[in-house]
Structure formats: structure tokens, C-alpha cells
């Protein structure tokens, strides 16, 4: 199923993308000031002006036949600070939440306060986890207490892969943790990353990047495994909550194919969001130089990497001699060139900011923004895109909707240059986004 190709220009140098600016107005109305009154208080630094349904111009004003937007003020509220490389947030039914830190720690926020110590029991003896990628809470957590951890493991030869463990949350500890699934991705490769999420069908969806040592070289020896069904790198996988393989996975029983594979041909799929009306599975994917994508995933489909990409290798060369389109390979629904590194995806269905209901939110890493996309808008622009919170200079690792209808975001800083800024290590902040009108 090929979808209309929609191009999203995402260069941070283009101010026309940013419909969100830091507010210069006070956040609460005040009585008229007397001539001798003290100067007005400084504006709240975490209150931002944006416009709905979405800007047709940088400041939300009329442009051509596009009517002016309605101003909406929102506030970033820090909920947990001082985190080390937060990667993923998972809510518990009571509104508390878990945070996966890259350095193999699971933090917990209870009653709006970050616990001083990570949860005990992770990683347990017998699980050689070298970094933690994601944490997921079972849909029936209230009755089974199950928590899932997706992590990198390594061997004596220096090869790495991804694996999934299940544990039970009891108080301030994860107990009875055991590995239930190991991806078939043992390679002495390059960067390794993945994400785990429960789908509405009760199964767990897992990403595994292409594990390529360096897209700066033309040699495709490693990244071509994304096209091989007997390897899990460059794939989206689907497993049951006990780590077994669902019988209706598309490649079950097929020769030279791994039954856990759900879709293939991915460079670095980063997050999932199920459409609230259609149930379609949407996924973000980070490309090389340009060619970041949102794809609508269908079981068994091939998304092209490394044969088809709208981006270039870091050599500045094309990924293949026929890089634009190939029969039998899906084109992205949306793409960004230049790159913004989309790392998170969520449909907003809450009631705390009703003007955003039905909008899609994309958290960007090198784009350093939360991008809001509003579809099916009035003419002349049916899609409106709003680059939020650029002035914060943060990488938006994960954005998720809480049970009570707020958006929460795991963010961090990464300063360019050598040596690295030592403050970056503990720059992680979880924000709640609230209306500020």
C-alpha cells in the first residue's frame, strides 16, 4: 500500500516552521498598574505561545488565503530532573511512572516526585545487560504487576544484540526478572538501539536498528541484513507477552525467515503510535543524511532500507543505484529532509488541551523540538506543522500521554564540541505539558 508522499521541510534554519514562541506576556492577568507601580514581573520562561489549528506563517498570522490562528499558551512543567540519559517512560495505572535510563537503571516517579534511588533488582544476576533501551508496563499490570525491559547484551567476542526481559514490580524493586526473548542480531556492528511497546492486540512490538558500523562508508555488508528475513537487525518484531511468537505473524513457517519479524527494511525505527480512529500502526524512523520517515506499517511489508531511501549516506552518495523507488517496497507517508531525527511518536487523545486532540506529536533529537502535525485542516493548508519548544535546546527522547490526559516528555541535552559538557550527563528532565491560558 503506497501512500501519498508528503515532504516536511525540517531545517532548523527555516523560521517558517516554528509556530511556537516563548511568551513575552505575564501568565496571569493583573489590575491596571498605577504610574508609580513597580515594573512588571518577568514572563514565565517555560510558557510558550503557539497557534491552533496550526500556523500557516511563522507567527500564526494570516498569510495569503490562510486565516490567522487562535493563540494557545502552553507551559512546560518539570516533573523529574537530574536524570541520566532518559530513554523511555511507561505509566502505571495509578499515574506513577517508570523511566528507563540508558545506564541500566529504572527510575520511578511516585506522586509527582522522583525517587532518590533506582529500582532494585535490575539487572539481576544472570542477565548481562549493557544498556537499557525501553521499559513497558503490561496492560494487565493491576493484576499481574508485570514490567518489561528491552536492553542491549554483549558477548566475549564484542558482538551485541537486543533482548527482552519480564519482571514483577513489588514496592521499590523488580523481582523475578528473567529473559524471555533474544533477538537474532549478534553482530560486531555499530550503534545499536531499540524500543518496545505493547500494541492494542496485547502483543509486544520491538524495533531493532540496522546495527551498521558506519553509514559513512559505501560498504553495505552489515546494513543489507535489514533485507534478510533470517536476521532481526533492521526489523520490527512482534512477540507475545511471554516472549513466544504469535501464530499469525507474517513469516511464521516460512523458510529462511524468523517468525518474530513483523516488517523489514528499516534503518532505525524508533517509536510506534496506533491511529486512534483507524487502528493503523504508524512508526517513526531515522534516516541517514535526510530521509527521516513516518511509515504506516502493515504485516510483512518491506520499507526499503538500505536499497531505497530519500536520504543520502554520510559519504554524500546515494544508498543504491535505484534509491528513489522500487516495486514491492513501501514509500514513507511523511519524510523530512534535512533530518530532524524523529525519535518519538504519539497521537494526542486527551482532554487537557482539547485544541490538540487528534494531532500527531513527533519528538526530535537533532531537530531539538516537539513537532505537532494537524491533519485534515481547512484550506488552503490541509496539514499544519508546529515546531514547539525550539528555544529549550533539548533532544526529545520520548513523548507519551498519561492516563489522565497530559503529554509527558523525556528530554536531554547534548552539547556539541570537545570535550563534552559534563552537565550533559545529568541533564535529563521529564516535562508535563499543560495549558497556560
Key terms:
437 residues, mainly beta, Neuraminidase, six-stranded antiparallel sheet, 1 helix, 37% strand, globular, disordered N terminus
Determine the number of helices (DSSP H or I, runs of at least 4 residues). 1
The CATH first-level class comes to Mainly Beta
Structural class: mainly beta
Low-confidence stretches: 1-18, 29-34
Relevant CATH superfamily: TolB, C-terminal domain
- The total number of structural domains is 1
- The order of strands across the largest sheet is 2-3-4-27-26-25
CATH structural architecture: 6 Propeller
Computed Rg: 22 Å
Name the average pLDDT. Answer: 90
Instruction: Give the oligomeric state.
Output: single chain
What order do the SSEs take from the amino end to the carboxyl end, as H and E? EEEEEEEEEHEEEEEEEEEEEEEEEEEE
Percent range of helical residues: under 10%
Q: Predict the CATH topology.
A: Neuraminidase
Model description:
The chain is mostly beta strands and 437 residues long. The protein has a single domain (6-21, 47-435), classed as TolB, C-terminal domain (Neuraminidase), CATH 2.120.10.30. It is built from one helix and 27 strands. The protein has a six-stranded antiparallel sheet, with no helix packed on it. A five-stranded mixed sheet has the order 1-20-19-18-17, with no helix packed on it. Strands 5-6-7-8 form a four-stranded antiparallel sheet, with no helix packed on it. The radius of gyration is 22 Å and the shape is globular. The two termini are 42 Å apart. Residues 1-18 and 29-34 have low confidence and may be disordered.
